[in-house]
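Tokens in:
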């Protein structure tokens, strides 16, 4: 148990029969309730602010793990004007006391909630400040470039060489390049943190439910030779190559008059629009050019589509029949499991494996939005604007800085902070 605040050490003297003589020294002590009765014996540690997790005076109690004992110690502390912490309050206090920035605070929760070792390691890198350092470095570069541009504006009455303006344009291009790279890493970090959404789609009876069961290694979906068996979405959470994934089976997409089946197709289309990767499963032995083209369905261009030909067990010559040089499909048999490793590798490739686990960072959707906003600001400055309206370029730089400062928490609203920390567990 941890107690943080200005009176933490003084209060602990009332409950502990022995307290540490100096900070960071473990001391054996009995714990006494408000009536003077012994509750337990354990260890007391004292951390003097600002050299503690929260930046405040902090006392740590190590007692035996029986919940009855722990509850009694907590109840006794609460008798002396101590209250229970809100979810995430310890980390929130660390943020407010400038021990960590907001991206590090969020990474604390990500370390706790990560579903794979790869995600844990990425969250730990962000918790140690790597992501925040990248963002801070870009903020400082934009600030410096803006200061140089405003110096040009201040001395506009003097001769301003084309070379000077060209240098400003080049700096803006380099900032855009580096910010776009950070955006790419942040998008992948958000997927690593929140999970990659993979949707299996295709015509009825293509083998979608059987493929889901194969990937889940259990019977999650009903499998039948009768077309249109799947009427609703079926999902499971797992991981592929250390990447958390949510794989979704959907109703066969086609032009149907069945009211229930039409509702299933509607839900399938909604899932497709929010997918990171779509597995376009084809089971007839014939390559289909587009998913659901007969009902006018258009997939957003930023969603990656893997074309997968099923039923190798029935058509052993599929690879020879469909020898496509550009963008070849993945060949599998959902019935026997043949080719599933190829499919998993294709999913990882679509996730973009060029960013290795050694330099992955954990990010959140709001970080991606902030970086996209900053990029929009920088990209809105054309080459002509450096000559004709440098004041607008400077304003774009200012707005880009404000967008990035949302990540670190320097420019944040109380409502946003409340939402972030309320999702933490008690005690963090």
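Residues out:
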């Amino acid at each position: 148990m941890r107690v943080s605040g200005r009176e933490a050490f003084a209060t602990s003297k009332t409950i502990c029969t022995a307290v540490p003589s100096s900070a960071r020294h473990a001391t054996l002590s009995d714990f006494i309730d408000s009536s003077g009765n012994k509750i337990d014996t354990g260890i007391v540690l004292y951390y003097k602010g600002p050299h503690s997790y929260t930046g405040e005076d902090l006392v740590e109690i190590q007692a035996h793990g029986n919940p009855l004992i722990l509850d009694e110690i907590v109840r006794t502390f609460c008798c002396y004007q101590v209250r229970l912490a809100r979810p995430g309050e310890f980390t929130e206090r660390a943020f407010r006391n400038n021990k960590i920035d907001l991206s590090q605070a969020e990474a604390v929760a990500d370390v706790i909630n990560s579903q794979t070792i790869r995600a844990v390691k990425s969250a730990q890198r962000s918790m140690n400040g790597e992501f925040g350092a990248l963002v801070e470095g870009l903020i400082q570069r934009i600030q410096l470039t803006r200061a140089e541009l405003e110096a040009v504006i201040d001395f506009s009455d003097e001769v301003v060489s084309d070379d000077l303006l060209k240098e400003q344009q080049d700096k803006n291009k380099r900032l855009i390049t580096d910010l776009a790279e950070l955006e790419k890493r942040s998008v992948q970090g958000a997927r690593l943190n929140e999970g990659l959404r993979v949707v299996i789609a295709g015509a009825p009876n293509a083998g979608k439910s059987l493929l889901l069961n194969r990937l889940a290694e259990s019977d999650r979906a009903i499998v039948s030779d009768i077309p249109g068996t799947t009427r609703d979405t079926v999902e499971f959470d797992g991981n592929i190559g250390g990447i958390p994934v949510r794989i979704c089976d959907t109703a066969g997409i086609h032009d149907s008059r069945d009211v229930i089946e039409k509702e299933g197709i509607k839900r399938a289309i909604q899932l497709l629009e929010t997918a990171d990767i779509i597995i376009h499963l084809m089971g007839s032995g014939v390559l289909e050019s587009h998913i659901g083209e007969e009902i006018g369905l258009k997939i957003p261009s930023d969603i990656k589509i893997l074309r997968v030909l099923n039923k190798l067990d029935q058509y052993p010559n599929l690879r020879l029949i469909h020898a496509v040089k550009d963008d070849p499909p993945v060949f599998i048999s959902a019935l026997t499991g043949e080719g599933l490793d190829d499919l998993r590798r294709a999913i990882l490739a679509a996730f973009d494996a060029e960013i290795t686990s050694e330099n992955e960072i954990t990010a959140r959707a709001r970080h991606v939005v902030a970086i996209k906003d900053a990029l929009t600001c920088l990209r809105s400055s054309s080459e002509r604007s450096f000559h004709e309206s440098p004041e607008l370029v400077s304003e774009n730089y200012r707005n880009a800085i404000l967008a990035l400062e949302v990540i670190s928490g320097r420019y944040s609203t109380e409502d946003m902070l409340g939402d972030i920390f309320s999702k933490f567990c008690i005690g963090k």
